[in-house]
Specification:
Blueprint: E1 2-6, H1 10-17, E2 24-26, H2 29-33, H3 39-49, E3 54-57, H4 63-76, E4 80-85, H5 88-99, E5 104-109, H6 112-121, E6 125-128, H7 130-135, H8 140-152, E7 159-162, H9 168-177, E8 181-184, H10 186-193, H11 196-220
Helix pairs in contact: 1-3, 4-5, 6-8, 8-9
The structure holds erythose-4-phosphate.
């Protein structure tokens, strides 16, 4: 499964990129609003940091405006993927942008039927929002499973991008289901690596090695 970070923080992106396991970035207007600086400049710097798909979202709500913004975003850098909301105008815009060869990430997907329509419109990625469904007592992961099952029957050139992942178990569940991509905030990414037994085990190895070194030094005296 490809791992994307769901952030527009250059600090976080630089830190995570150094580990060499981040495949792409998803941003949205809310994430960019948290950062200071020109949003387009931030997107370009993200693209120059991570050589993978970087989602930048349109804010127009009519197809014509979405297409205009999408073309502009895509012109900023070859890595940009145009994020378009899953509404009727978004489907129209996706059809046009996809026909021009631009990659679209259809976002704000909360049902398998929305994902099916997004794939048919030519979206390159569909983003079901797991955590936000969980927030309203609806099992978000089931939507991801349904989408994967549907896509398995057909040849859509469309990847399932499990989004709104809120904790490591969401990531594991998405990977077990075979989601193509999981996007997560830095806190969840960091939690994927941490294990107290790893820390305890490493401390013990290092302490024991210190003992070996002391014994060797003593035997040379
Ligand atoms: C991804 O593309 C979405 O922007 C993101 O995962 C939404 O996550 P949230 O529900 O935690 O805001």
């Amino acid at each position: 499964m490809k791992i994307f970070l769901d952030t527009a923080s250059l600090k976080e992106i630089h830190e995570a990129a150094a580990l060499g396991v981040v495949d792409g970035i998803t941003t949205n207007p809310s994430l960019l609003a948290k950062e200071s600086g020109d949003p387009e400049g931030i997107l370009v710097e993200i693209c120059n940091t991570i050589d993978g798909p970087i989602s930048g979202e349109v804010v127009a709500t009519d197809a014509e405006g979405m297409v205009r913004e999408g073309r502009h975003l895509a012109s900023l850098h070859k890595n940009i993927v145009v994020k378009v909301p899953c509404i009727a105008e978004g489907l129209k815009a996706t059809k046009i942008l996809a026909a021009e060869g631009r990659r679209v990430n259809m976002t704000l997907i909360f049902s398998p039927s929305q994902a099916l329509l997004a794939a048919k419109a030519g979206a390159r990625y569909v983003s079901p929002f797991v955590g936000r469904l969980d927030d309203i007592s609806t099992p978000g992961m089931e939507i991801v499973a349904d989408i994967i099952q549907i896509f398995d029957h057909y040849d859509y050139d469309c990847e399932v991008l499990a989004a709104s992942l809120r904790h490591p178990m969401h990531v594991i569940e998405a990977a077990k289901m075979g989601a193509d991509i999981g996007t997560m905030p830095m806190s969840v990414f960091t939690a994927l690596l941490k294990h107290p037994l790893t820390d305890i085990g490493l401390r013990r190895f290092l302490d024991d090695w210190e003992k070996v070194k002391s014994q060797m030094a003593a035997s040379r005296r």
